[in-house]
């Protein structure tokens, strides 16, 4: 299969290449794509060297699948051009996620909505993916009324510039700033820009995307997204009110048997998820599972995942795997 990786030289693009190799995705020809300034650069993948090409060239090469992680503007302009040439696009940007004609997919939850006609498929936001991975099976069993989520997000979600800012601040060097404020020894209560309602785009993604993926706009969601000086992954404190009561051990057991979820929850051994240990892994890790004793039918839990893997690259490639396995490409 001819596969294009659009944004191949970026953080997520590099993880996509790594995961494609790890999962032995059936690539017969790899087309690394990047902006004009990177055209001609060479990348090595699975022992072979490939030259980075521009977007127009990549469209003409007619890949069967194009994995995008190149920002919303690029996706808005180029995903339709790839699709018109017969390529199936799986896009990591927010450009298509809330488009009513486009599917927003976490394979373990709703891959069955995909058809041959889906030529632009949206990959959800990283913080949404890890949350719905844990909540979908619970929604199915107990029904969700309301979610209150606070996220503690890795600087890798912002990109290389943020990682460089933290490293500079460690060393006491003044360099380019990805954030308005220092991130070292700090927590910034802003991920992305603010919307009219006083919430950030990141927080509203958690609201809108969760409702779309779980197929229920009646699910009430409120979110606070915080940036912290961590690189391994995003962490989330989730408080979820169900329509009916539950048994905590039954919840733990349900999550334990959910593909793609690993329960790490034993207070006697101080076992709970942490980003330093989630880094480089594809599962979503859930712990601190406990009843919210302040109101009925409500549960607290702590959810951690590598935002560059299950939160982006791996989920994207799992969608591509589903398309191939079901002859949808
Ligand atoms: C962030 N979720 O962490 C965003 C990136 N896609 O900033």
Automatic annotation (TrEMBL):
Binding site for phosphate: 97
EC number(s) from the headed UniProt entry: 1.2.1.11
Positions with a binding annotation for NADP(+): 9-12, 37-38, 307
Pfam families given in the database record: Semialdhyde_dh, Semialdhyde_dhC
Catalytic activity from the UniProt record: L-aspartate 4-semialdehyde + phosphate + NADP(+) = 4-phospho-L-aspartate + NADPH + H(+)
InterPro entries: Asp_semialdehyde_DH, Asp_semialdehyde_DH_beta, NAD(P)-bd_dom_sf, Semialdehyde_DH_NAD-bd, Semialdhyde_DH_dimer_dom
Biological pathway: Amino-acid biosynthesis; L-lysine biosynthesis via DAP pathway; (S)-tetrahydrodipicolinate from L-aspartate: step 2/4; Amino-acid biosynthesis; L-methionine biosynthesis via de novo pathway; L-homoserine from L-aspartate: step 2/3; Amino-acid biosynthesis; L-threonine biosynthesis; L-threonine from L-aspartate: step 2/5
Top class in the EC scheme: oxidoreductase
Residues bound to substrate: 153, 227
Domain Semialdehyde dehydrogenase NAD-binding: 2-117
UniProt superkingdom: Bacteria
A GO molecular-function annotation: aspartate-semialdehyde dehydrogenase activity
Active site residues per record: 126 (acyl-thioester intermediate), 234 (proton acceptor)
Function: Catalyzes the NADPH-dependent formation of L-aspartate-semialdehyde (L-ASA) by the reductive dephosphorylation of L-aspartyl-4-phosphate.
Quaternary data: Homodimer.
Entry similarity comment: Belongs to the aspartate-semialdehyde dehydrogenase family.
Protein name: Aspartate-semialdehyde dehydrogenase
Originating organism: Flavobacterium nakdongensis
Gene name for this UniProt entry: asd
